[in-house]
Design brief:
Structural class: alpha+beta
Protein name: SET domain-containing protein
Shape: globular
Strand content: 15-25%
Pfam family, one: SET
Strand order of the largest sheet: 7-8-16-13
């Protein structure tokens, strides 16, 4: 028995100059620091810590995902010290990209274990050297932004959709793609005539270039009220279910998908709309966000047609009938479970059933969104947090808050006010207004069990068998 702990670097390191240079410093320091330690062996491609076969540090930084191991109750091999030291050194050069975790405390690593194993296997062989054809290729990954301030996307025609955003480089999950302030905002609860009048006033305040950008946006509702048609086609809500929408020079060109690879998030503190990758996006792939509110395909397509004026033919909606039927059933289950979990009386009086529904919903989301539920996880884990905190269960609430926080980091960023709020709840769950209304599951936040296997920990967390 033991606790699996370590750190990941998020987003993962690139082949770019900055990451390579900083990693060389980390690698050199660790190599020199342990040169007289017979439990540490420097090999051509990596540094091996003999206490655990997977505790390796690669020479090629872009292969690194995780440095971690299962620490036994009696840590005679000094695993904890090795991990803590390497983590501190990495933090000196990579700062907040270093994410420490400890499954014994209910905090899991960022990357999937299969991906970690695959990356470790790649340490044995050096990659074939690449000959860059452009400077941008030379600083591949996150470095184009750092080195040259190059956007990760380009606006270009997309077949059947008009203009759209397409990735210029590989984009890591959790990476900020674009942050943009709106031309202006407008309410969606006023008449088209009022919108026309309001926008005509707002447009006069904009520079000529911005006015041209606004008029270049697509209008799916041509007619006598062109301003409101452009707004209706392109506005994004300034926050979940907000009646206020923003119109953006670039973000408004991002097209919809029912299986999106990005998430749009409004930051009320900065007044900017942010787009984050919710999964890996390959260079040349279109960047998409969801315009819909869920539900089966007929509901989604009807909403998209009425609200935005187009017929959705995304990878979900264009599936063969049998596959689409299965997807629709999963979407109905998602709607049903979401409603059940949100039933306040049920949360109060049947918390165990609500927590089971959260677990079931997680599994369906993973299946329907092909392993990348994205922003859905932020709400699901927060719902689970609330179920537990009502019952005074600070231990489980802390774990669920941590998971919600990590999900928000990946799709909304650390500076989003909601991310910061969840972080505070993670640090002190009992500050939530609903804490201890019933106290059926009373526990302290430091009573998260240690030394459990991953399966055992999940059973504890979801109260399996209770």
């Amino acid at each position: 028995m033991g606790s699996y702990r370590g750190f990941d670097i998020v987003p993962r390191l690139s082949k770019g100059l900055v990451d390579k240079h900083n990693w060389e410093r980390v690698f050199k320091f660790i190599r020199e620091n342990y040169q007289n330690d017979d439990q540490v062996e420097v090999k051509p491609n990596y540094i091996a810590f003999k206490s655990d076969p997977d505790l390796l540090l690669p020479l090629e930084c872009h292969k690194f995902l995780r440095f971690g191991a299962t620490i036994p109750n009696e840590d005679t091999g000094g695993l904890r010290d090795y991990i803590d030291t390497v983590s501190r050194v990495a933090s000196c050069w990579f700062g907040s990209r270093v994410r420490n975790w400890d499954e014994g405390d209910g905090i899991s690593g960022y990357y999937a274990l299969d991906d970690v194993k695959r990356s470790i296997r790649s340490y044995e062989q050096f990659d074939e050297p690449e000959v860059p054809t452009t400077l941008a290729q030379f600083v591949l990954g996150t470095d184009p932004i750092r080195e040259l301030n190059l956007p990760l996307y380009e606006v270009k025609p997309v077949l059947g959709k008009g203009q759209g955003l397409v990735a210029r480089f590989n984009i890591a999950k959790g990476q900020l793609i674009i942050s943009e302030k709106p031309f202006f905002t407008t309410s969606n609860v006023v008449s088209a005539a009022k919108i026309e009048k309001q926008i005509s006033i707002e447009l006069r305040k904009l520079p000529k270039d911005a006015q041209r950008q606004f008029f270049s946006l697509h209008n799916n509702f041509p007619g006598k009220q062109p301003f409101s048609g452009i707004v209706r086609t392109n506005a994004l809500p300034c926050g979940p279910d907000s009646p206020i929408g923003g119109i953006y020079p670039t973000i408004s060109r991002i097209n919809h998908s029912c299986l999106p690879n990005a998430h749009n998030s409004w930051n009320s503190a900065s007044g900017y709309e942010n787009i984050y990758a919710v999964r890996f996006i390959a260079a040349g792939e279109e960047i998409t966000i969801p315009y819909d509110h869920g539900g089966p395909s007929d509901e989604r397509r009807r909403h998209l047609k009425n609200a935005f004026g187009f017929d959705c033919d995304c990878s979900i909606c264009s599936r063969p009938p049998a596959e689409l039927k299965q997807s629709d059933e999963r979407r109905r289950q998602i709607q049903h479970l979401d409603a059940e979990i949100g039933n306040a009386l049920r949360v109060m009086h049947s918390p165990g059933d609500c927590l089971k529904d959260c677990r079931a919903l997680l599994q369906i989301l993973e299946e329907e969104f092909e392993g990348t539920p994205g922003a859905h996880l932020t709400r699901l884990y927060y719902d689970a947090f609330q179920i537990c905190i009502v019952q005074g269960d600070q231990a489980r609430a802390r774990v669920f808050a941590e998971r919600s926080y990590r999900a928000r980091l990946a799709c909304e960023g650390e500076n989003n006010p909601e991310t910061k709020r969840i972080q505070k709840l993670m640090e002190d769950p009992k500050t939530h207004a609903s804490f201890g209304l019933l106290m059926k599951w009373k526990s302290l936040k430091n009573q998260v069990p240690r030394g459990l296997s991953s399966d055992e920990f999940e059973k504890w967390l979801w109260r399996h068998g209770k």
